[in-house]
Design brief:
This protein is of the alpha+beta class and 445 residues long. Helix 4 (95-108) packs across helix 7 (208-218).
């Protein structure tokens, strides 16, 4: 299979564990298969890691490409490695431009043939292996030219007002599509379900030529590189409006397996394997309480019911589960720099912010290194607290071990290379410290 995973979104609804860089699909709260043990990094996996693992379990030869923004690339590489294909959107232009760009990427960069099938699906549903077997079936239907576009329709479990509906012509497992309906109110949703209506989960398959032809009809471009260069000028439009609404030959595959959209703390906690992740204690009077704690300090909860408690360096949330779905406008009012991020080489966590200094804990994976870079408006001091490696400062190499201190003045080129996992306390000193104050250089190792 050729699978395109759509990875977008920001961190408003699952604050404080997610933020503008760390979207919900990167939060590690799902237990890995039973053979994982020991370090918390080995026990839990994120939505992205879970979906990628499930795809490879069902089809080890699947070609997976992730369509995403530049801000998520480092986290993707951190969690699933550098082998996965990534189609980077220069800016957000909704789902049609993103899918058109990913399709051109598959053809022009990955060398996928025009008559090969592509399956597109979100990166963040909570599903079991049966879902990926259905994706395989979806791919086969598109290969057989059952229709120009083959959708997966989710069998509704209740009359939801959150999803659009696909109305099939028949109630067979595979049917032509009669029409589509926008997100309804609950009574109308029930009418759609009575007609055999299915949730539109944004999962579909097509032959690469089909979407590429449609893209050329709507956008003036020659190839992937040309489309990428023009991306910022493209009109924002969804795939449904640009393609689906104008296509008469559409089929739908009915899917009745497990499928959950984990978009709020309430729905996310329903999928958790245990009530406490991290340091937390619930007394016997607690009921339906979930704690997710990344702070490394204990949380004690007593006599609370139907609540979610989440703590990270970005903040602390204590909420009734139903009310947790409404946190976005309150989070929008919080103005704070990102305190935690995953990079391709490891992670960084902000420990302290002062007017003219920031203190950060950096963890590099074994064999990884930062970009060779400099800063114009700040000095930096690195203290090695565990692991071994080497630093390169203005071209001079030096081995480092716990207790070593390295100082870099503003304008000084520097990087660090980890032999084993390497932990560093970094102190940034200067006025107006920002993440944009960074200049990169080529590094020959």
């Amino acid at each position: 299979m050729n699978i395109v995973l759509l990875s977008g979104g920001s961190g408003k609804r699952l604050w404080p564990l997610s933020n503008d860089i760390r979207s919900k699909q990167f939060i590690k709260i799902f237990k890995k298969p039973e053979n994982s043990k020991g370090n918390p990094e080995d026990i839990y996996e994120s939505m992205l890691q879970r979906v990628y693992r499930q795809i490879k379990t069902v089809d080890s030869d699947a070609t997976v490409t992730i369509a995403t923004s530049k801000s998520q690339v480092s986290a993707i590489h951190n969690q699933i490695g550098a082998d996965v294909g990534i189609s980077v959107e220069p800016c957000r232009r909704d789902t049609f431009p993103a899918i058109a760009l990913a399709t051109a990427y598959l053809h022009d960069v990955q060398g996928i043939g025009l008559d090969e099938v592509v399956v597109v699906c979100p990166v963040d549903p909570y599903v079991d292996d049966e879902y990926f077997e259905a994706l395989n079936k979806l791919s086969e239907l598109a290969e057989q030219d059952v229709a120009n576009l083959v959708l997966m329709g989710i069998d509704p479990t209740y009359p939801s007002a959150k999803y659009g509906y696909i109305i099939p012509s028949t109630k067979d497992q595979v049917s032509k599509v009669d029409t589509f309906r926008e997100k309804p109110d609950e009574p109308t949703a029930q009418k759609y379900i009575d007609q055999g209506g299915l949730w539109n989960g944004g999962v579909f398959a097509y032959k690469l030529r089909y979407v590429l032809d449609r893209a050329h009809e709507l956008i003036d471009f020659t190839d992937y590189a040309d489309l990428f260069s023009k991306y910022e000028t493209l009109t924002k439009i969804s795939f449904d409006y640009a393609v689906v609404e104008h296509e008469k030959d559409i089929a739908v595959l009915r899917f009745a397996g497990e499928w959950k959209d984990l978009g709020t703390w309430n729905t996310l906690s329903e999928a958790m394997d245990e009530n406490v992740i991290g340091e937390g204690i619930l007394n016997e009077e607690c009921s339906n309480v979930h704690v997710i704690n990344e702070m490394g300090v204990p949380i004690l909860v007593m006599g609370i019911k139907d609540a979610v408690i989440s703590a990270s360096t970005d903040g602390i949330l204590v909420s009734d589960k139903e009310q947790s779905a409404a946190i976005k406008p309150f989070v929008d009012e919080i103005n704070q720099q990102v305190m935690f991020a995953e990079k391709s080489w490891g992670t960084y966590k902000v420990l302290d912010v002062e007017e003219e200094s920031i203190t950060v804990k950096i963890t590099l994976k074994a064999g990884q290194h930062m970009n060779y870079h400099s800063h114009e408006r700040r000095n930096e001091v690195w203290t090695i607290i565990s692991g071994t490696g080497k630093t390169i400062v203005d071209g001079m190499e030096q081995p480092v071990k716990p207790g070593d201190v390295i100082t870099m003045d503003a304008g000084c080129k520097h990087t660090v290379i980890a032999d084993s996992e390497l932990q560093i306390i970094e102190v940034q000193l200067g006025k107006g410290i920002t993440v944009t104050d960074k200049k990169k250089y080529e590094l020959n190792i």
